[in-house]
Amino acid sequence: MRFKGAIFDLDGTLVDSLPSIAAAVNHGLTQLELPTHAQSAVGRMVGEGVRTLCERALPASRPELLEDLLRHVWSYYEAHLLDRTKPYEGIDAMVRELAGAGARLGVLSNKPDVLTCRTIAGLGWSPWFKAVRGQIDGIPKKPDPAGAFWVLGGIGLEPSETLYVGDTAIDMRTAKAAGMPSVAVTWGFRMREELERESPTWIVDDPAEIVRIAAR
Fold first, then answer.
1. Which residues lie below 8 Å from residue 141, measured CB to CB, with a gap of 6+?
2. What dotted CATH number matches 5-16+86-215?
3. Can you give 98-150 as a three-state secondary structure string?
4. Phi and psi torsions of 148, nearest 5°
5. What is the rounded distance in angstroms from the CA atom of residue 158 to the CA atom of residue 149?
6. 3-state DSSP call for residue 159?
7. Which ranges of the chain does DSSP label H, i.e. alpha helix?
8. Which of 8, 22, 133, 170 is the most buried (most CB within 10 A)?
9. Which residue numbers are catalytic?
10. pLDDT at 63 > cutoff 90
11. Tens of pLDDT, residues 116-136
12. Which residues pair with 182 in a beta bridge?
């Protein structure tokens, strides 16, 4: 294979978790008697961690409720993590094909680390992803490259021989900061136009294309 491995974003790249995330956010808002958001609107808020998500979900006039919203969202989401979360079509086959060809795979997410690891384990992907990292307090989140370098160390690869795959501008900036070739996927939480503005190395519309890129 041309590339020896790949690091994947999680939400919006490997899994469609937006129904679960939106349900958790709207549960929290309802508990605080605040207006809720359409699922599509929540999709535009995600990508930079749960605290930033909750900041964006709150009315601008109620910032004092942030900690309360975080508590409600975390509690609900932790209890219902995989209720409405599933891999995108073609992802499972793509992961197995890459791993079967000897590619070393990792995950880097701005989702809290414990939930990132639970998601990978709950979907039965632990045998394939050898290094999994979510957001940890005190460690910079994406687009800072620190997490990408940690995952690279975990799979034993250099940036130049590893694809970085994600669905948001944050992911493309992470890849650039880490010196990694980037693959932007169009089936996630952002519009193609946003991804194009980041000038990724490749833009793909189907998971099978990632296998072809890795093998070129």
1. 48, 49, 110, 135, 147
2. 3.40.50.1000
3. HHHCCCEEEEEEEEEHHHHHHHHHHCCCCCCEEEEEEECCCCCCCCCCHHHHH
4. -65, -40
5. 9
6. helix
7. 18-31, 39-43, 50-57, 66-79, 91-100, 113-122, 146-155, 169-178, 192-197, 207-215
8. 8
9. 9
10. yes
11. 999 999 999 999 999 999 999
12. 164
Q: pTM of the predicted model, to two decimals?
A: 0.90
Q: Are 113 and 93 in contact (CB under 8 A)?
A: no
Q: Give CATH 3.40.50.1000 domain extents, the chain.
A: 5-16+86-215
What is the structure's pLDDT at 23?
95
122 φ/ψ sector (left φ>0, alpha ψ -120 to 50, else beta): alpha
The string of pLDDT tens digits covering residues 144-176 is 999 999 999 999 999 999 999 999 999 999 999
How far is the first Cα of the chain from the last one, in angstroms, to the nearest whole number?
7
pLDDT at position 46: 86
Residue 94: CA count within 13 A, CB half-sphere? 23
Cα–Cα dist 176/166, whole Å: 12
Coil, strand or helix at 36 = coil
Strand 182-185 with 5-8, pairing: unpaired
Distance separating alpha carbons of residues 5 and 193, to the nearest angstrom: 27
Q: Kindly state the percentage of the chain with pLDDT values over 90.
A: 91
Q: Where in the chain do CATH 1.10.150.240 domains reside?
A: 18-79
Residue 14: alpha-carbon gap to chain centroid? 7
Q: Give the separation between CA 172 and CA 34, rounded to whole angstroms.
A: 33
